[in-house]
Every structure is written in C-alpha cells, then in structure tokens.
Specification:
By secondary structure, the protein is of the alpha+beta class. 31% of the residues lie in helices and 28% in strands. The protein has two domains: 138 residues, Pnp Oxidase, Chain A (Roll), CATH 2.30.110; 36 residues, no CATH class. The protein starts with 7 loop residues before the first helix and ends with a helix.
Length: 204
C-alpha cells in the first residue's frame, strides 16, 4: 500500500514536535485534579489484551463507580453481564489495562494506564454491594500513568449535543442483530420484547 508510514522516525517527522503541555499533563499517580474527574465519571471504557487479541468493554454506574483506594490504586467492580468475561480472561494472562473515563457534558476525558489483578475478597465485594447484590469480582488497578485528553474529539463529534442524538428505532435492534447473525435461530422479536424487563431485573 503506497504512502504508508512504517517507522517511528517517519511518524514523528510527519506529525512534528509534541506540545509540551501534552507531556507535562501526564503523571504516575492520581493527583487531586484527576481524582475529581474520576469521582464525577459514570462511564469508562476498559481496554485489555490477551493471547486472542484486544478487548474494549463499556463499564458504567453512578458517578464515582470506580473507587479510588489511594493515589496509585483504583477499584473497578465487575457487575452482572453476559458472562463472556473477555476482559477478565485477558487480565488473568496479561495485567496491562487502560481506562478512558467520560463525564456527560464535559469535553475532556481522562486516560489511565496500569496493571490489574482480579479480587474476589468477600469484604471488598460486599463493600460494593447495591441493593444487597455484590459484584462478581473487583478489578484492582495499580496506576502507571494518568492524563487528561483535550476536548477536540468530543467537540468534533458533538457527543453531548441532544440535537445529534440518534433515534433508537433508526438502527437495528439487539434482537434484529441476533436474528440476522443466527439465521433466525434467535427469535429477534421475542428477544427485543423481553429485553427491557430482563435488563431492569438483572442490572445488579
């Protein structure tokens, strides 16, 4: 493929000098300003890697659902899901993880890179209980680097602009996708009909 960049030197020459503020915003611990962003975030994307490849999964709950234990440690509860446990399988074999925190209405995002282990310590699980239901496990993340990402991507996408919201009915539903991928072995209409109640009763 022509015009392909294949070396670091080519890449750096193409993009030019790094803005010094972009380097100085990176820390190896959770300073008060970064703690405030994590405590306000109700959503994060968790990236992991393993022998089968990469995984990036959505994580969300009330603001501050990722708990700050200290300035080097984050605690991420693993709530009920589909039991694919792709992220957890990866962490068991490769502890490297990355988090991207989003805060509704805020342009800046926060990026955290670190090393993770999976804890099932009963007291820790119980401390994360909601409606008497603890998470199945807690991902304990030791922070390597943390820095904020400027707002350009959010501004370009107009992510928080309600006028840009997409009507759910304009895109394939979960049931329609499953029906298509299984040659109708999954009853898509029945799946969609049951989904709202199933989600409500299995949220935690």
């Amino acid at each position: 493929m022509p015009h392909t960049i294949t070396t670091l030197s080519e890449l750096e020459a193409h993009y030019g000098e790094v803005n010094q503020a972009s380097l100085r915003k990176e820390t190896d611990r959770l300073v008060p300003e970064y703690r405030a962003l994590i405590e306000a975030a109700p959503f994060a994307a968790l990236a992991t890697r393993g022998p089968e490849g990469l995984d990036c999964s959505p994580r969300g709950d009330g603001p501050g659902f990722v708990r700050i234990r200290d300035d080097k440690t984050l605690l991420l509860p693993d709530r009920r899901g589909n039991n694919r446990i792709d992220s957890l399988k990866n962490i068991v074999r490769d502890p490297s993880v990355a988090l991207l925190f989003l805060i509704p209405g805020i342009g800046e995002t926060l990026r955290v890179n670190g090393q993770a282990v999976i804890s099932v310590e009963p007291g820790l699980l119980e401390s994360f209980s909601i409606d008497g239901k603890p998470p199945r496990s807690v991902i304990v993340i030791t922070v390597d680097t943390v820095f904020f990402q400027c707002a350009r991507a959010i501004l370009r996408s107009e992510l928080w602009n309600p006028e840009r919201h997409v009507a759910r009915a304009s895109l394939p539903s979960a049931g329609q996708i499953l029906a298509a991928l299984t040659n109708d072995e999954v009853d898509g209409e029945a799946y969609d009909k049951a989904l709202p109640e199933r989600q409500r009763t299995t949220l935690y």
